[in-house]
Design a protein that fits this description.
This protein is mainly beta. It has one domain. It has 1 helix and 11 strands; from the N terminus they run E-E-E-E-E-E-E-E-E-E-E-H. The strands form 3 sheets. Strands 2-3-6-7-8-11 form a 6-stranded antiparallel sheet, with helices on one face. A hairpin with a 4-residue loop joins strand 7 and strand 8.
Amino acid sequence: MEMSERKIHQPKYITSQQGMGLPNTTKSAELIDANTLVTTEIWNEMDKPWTQSGITTANKGYKWITKWEVGKNYVITGNIDDKGNLLSYYCDICSSVERNGDNFSFTDWYLDVFLPVGGVPVTADKVVSLLKSGELLIGFPPTRE
């Protein structure tokens, strides 16, 4: 594909209640503290799997676990297959995450970071634990408060 043929996405407003995936996911949320929400989406039936860089990131039974933090300019999602293997992390670079009642939101700028991890066996609890601990943020510079 020529560079001139690539599609440029317009910024998109995304909320924690609508989720990161399509409407065919089963969604749940856990409020960690007043400024942090972790959502889980389990994919239902799909016409065909979604792939990113040759890695299937969404298919029936796959989970997306996403950490939303007020004031941050990124939202991190762990992609887990139907066998419990961590496949990748996906980081949306975005406007500052905001909280409005029970809903967290941001404008996705489509400047994303995709980190494949090679199908490491992990539980969903471990991904939530990593997201809560901030261990994934070692490569990100600290933000000014």
